[in-house]
Design a protein that fits this description.
The protein is an alpha/beta fold. The chain contains nine helices and six strands; from the N terminus they run βαβααβαβαααβαβα. The protein has one domain: Alpha/Beta hydrolase fold, catalytic domain (Rossmann fold, 3-Layer(aba) Sandwich). It has a six-stranded parallel β-sheet, with helices on both faces. Strand 3, helix 4 and strand 4 form a beta-alpha-beta unit. Helix 2 crosses helix 4. The model has no long low-confidence stretch (mean pLDDT 95).
Length: 249
């Protein structure tokens, strides 16, 4: 049984595995024959980056190491996330095997943390460009380059003062030819994360892994977490993507 992992949103400081709108996809996934796994990760009030990605990678290793026990297919693992969870899903997708973002003390250090398909719904990617993209769009969005921003709280310092650390947290930094397929959606009216984050990320992925492995859809008029992302039709799109990249790979 193929599996995909749900990573919840919540701006890095709130939420848990039961609180995401992505739970709406659960029954449809089960009906398609998937194992559906929801995970928690340490929030920014508990630990700073890279603890969050350490936790997600540890969960992937645990599932792969114990796949036989759970009747799962260990080779085929997908990950889906929205907002902060979309960011973590994207980072997992590009940083497979990157030891700098692993924490072997969390267990199963000899097991791969790579995934075979990624769904990123309106996640941030490059914290350093968020403010300028809102300016370019004429959208009065949430400010990122201040010490009180959610991204700065995640990193433990005003992000404008730590460009090197921001680069280490950016999924684009780790893009490589062996990255999995990506399904990316974002809305043009998002006031939390500018849609250009997804446009730029998808563009950089396509250069390296090719157009056929990157699906990007910009939804006109959609805001952050709007219902357009969770309609029956859109859930079918997401599951069709997983079918194509997990069940037939």
């Amino acid at each position: 049984m193929e599996v995909f992992i749900k990573v919840h949103g919540g701006s890095f400081y709130k939420g848990d595995k039961n609180s995401s709108g992505l739970n709406k996809i659960k029954q449809a996934a089960l009906d398609r024959g998937y194992a559906f796994v929801s995970i928690n990760y340490r929030l920014s009030s508990e630990a700073k980056f890279p603890a969050q990605i350490n936790d997600v990678k540890a969960a992937i290793r645990y599932l792969r190491a114990n796949a036989k026990w759970y009747n799962m297919e260990p080779r085929e693992i997908g990950v889906i996330g929205n907002s902060a969870g979309g960011y973590l899903a994207a980072l997992v997708g590009t940083s497979g095997g990157v030891t700098e973002l692993q924490n072997s003390s969390l267990g199963n250090s000899n097991v791969s943390d790579r995934v075979q398909a990624v769904v990123d719904l309106y996640g941030p990617i490059n914290f350093g460009t968020i403010d300028q993209q809102f300016v370019e769009s004429g959208i009065n969005g949430e400010t990122c380059n201040i010490s009180s921003s959610l991204e700065s709280k995640l990193m433990g310092q005003d992000i404008s003062t730590i460009p090197g650390q921001v680069a280490k947290a950016n999924p684009e930094t780790y893009i490589s030819i062996d990255d999995p397929a990506f399904f990316i959606q974002h809305g043009t009216s998002d006031r939390v994360i500018p849609y250009q984050q997804s446009v730029d990320f998808a563009g950089k992925l396509k250069i390296v892994i090719g157009d056929k492995k990157v699906y990007l859809e910009i939804i006109q008029g959609a805001g952050h977490g709007d219902e357009q992302f969770f309609t029956t039709e859109n859930i079918k799109k997401i599951l069709d993507f997983f079918d194509a990249n997990l069940k037939q790979s």
